[in-house]
Write a structure and sequence with these properties.
This protein has 2 helices and 3 strands; from the N terminus they run βααββ. The chain has helices at residues 45-55, 62-85, and strands spanning 26-42, 90-102, 105-119. It has a 3-stranded antiparallel beta sheet.
Length: 122
């Protein structure tokens, strides 16, 4: 699985994603299975030193917050790209998971169910 480039990340619009198991206003036509995006990141020595310095002042450690947000966003975008490749136009039941593989190295997984939906005619 390759890392998507920014243009690929827009294959399925974010409004066609949900943590729920239905998408309001749409009917699920077919489930295409589980899709996922995996990112493994390590903290840089400089980033770790900067974050250690930030802990001296308390509060949000912005260097780690930004790293976590970028990592989750990349995993989410990769999952959307995989859903698009599977023929989906939406993803439901989205979840995140993270595991420390070794000290300073974390895996972030974003997964959900790829589905084809159609608007509910009303």
């Amino acid at each position: 699985m390759t890392t998507p480039i920014p243009a690929q990340a827009l294959d399925i619009p974010h409004e066609m994603t949900t943590t729920g198991f239905e998408l309001p206003g749409f009917r699920i036509q077919i489930s295409l299975g589980v899709v996922r995006g995996v990112v493994v990141r390590s903290r840089s020595v400089l980033g770790t030193m900067g974050a250690t310095f930030q802990t001296l002042f308390g509060g949000n450690i912005s260097l780690f917050t930004e790293l976590a947000e970028r990592t989750r966003a990349q995993a989410f975008d990769t999952m959307l790209h995989q859903a698009d490749l599977a023929g989906a136009n939406a993803v439901i039941g989205i979840r995140y998971d993270a595991n420390e593989l070794m000290q300073g190295v974390t895996e972030v997984l974003c997964y959900g169910t790829a589905v084809r939906v159609e608007p509910i005619k009303g």
